[in-house]
Specification:
Layout: H1 7-14, H2 22-27, H3 36-44, E1 47-51, H4 56-61, E2 68-73, H5 83-96, E3 101-103, E4 109-114, H6 119-123
Antiparallel strand pairs: 1-2, 2-4, 3-4
Length: 124
């Protein structure tokens, strides 16, 4: 008897090896968002979509979509970075994110406020 798959395992199984339709979602210039399913897949890669809750009501009243952006989590083996790596992360945060570089309790950095059109350049 095989065990029942959880919702997360169903998403993984249907995602074409964790690809989903991310390429299509990221290429869509009509919206700053990606699909719900692709957001779930993106979380497996250490990133997720968010919206600016401070602008939510104002944008709703203007009949605009939420101000979507993305968080990207870096991978830092052992949580150690050199001074030059810190400066490089800081430069990336200033150029592609909202300027803040967050240090987490899990020994990594998070970049917030990355726009969809800047995701590839930020990760590269």
């Amino acid at each position: 008897m095989s065990p029942q798959l959880s919702e997360v395992e169903h998403i993984k199984a249907a995602s074409r090896l964790l690809r989903g339709t991310l390429v299509e979602s990221l290429a869509d210039p009509v919206t700053g968002a990606i699909s719900h399913g692709d957001n779930r897949v993106l979380k497996f890669h250490g990133s997720y979509q968010q919206d600016d809750r401070d602008l939510r009501e104002e944008r709703r009243l203007q009949k605009l979509e939420p101000a979507y952006s993305f968080m990207i989590r870096a991978r830092l083996p052992g949580g150690v970075v050199t001074p030059q790596q810190w400066l490089n992360f800081d430069a990336i945060a200033r150029e592609y994110a909202n300027g803040s570089l967050r240090i987490t309790t899990r020994q990594t950095f998070q970049l917030h406020g990355v726009l969809k059109r800047e995701l590839k350049a930020t990760i590269a």
